What does this fold into?
Amino acid sequence: MITREEAIEACLRFEDSFEDYPFKDVNWTIMRHKSNNKMFAAIYERFGKIWINLKAEPMTGDFWKNVFPAVVPAYHMNKEHWISVILDGTMTDGDIIPLIEDSFLLTMQKKHKSMQQNR
It folds into this structure.
């Protein structure tokens, strides 16, 4: 995966997702949940490459930043809870899609505590 279209397609594999362009800057594609409108990915071009910002647990994000040079602190986001993945061809789809899935799961609508206790 190296193009914006491939990144968008990978995000749209998750049910309840849609692409949005909420900014005047059309460089930014925001991937959101239909159910809660929360962003789980931001796709944009920077330095001639496509980047994706993804939510990550702090320890998980630190792990991936140490494993892959293409995973860096998130551009323009909270550096503790978000990472940027540079789509430069050094990571496979098999490396990237689980990171997208983690972000999707971390941002999905949470069940209310009262509903969880009634299970």
About this structure: The first strand starts at residue 17 and ends at 20.
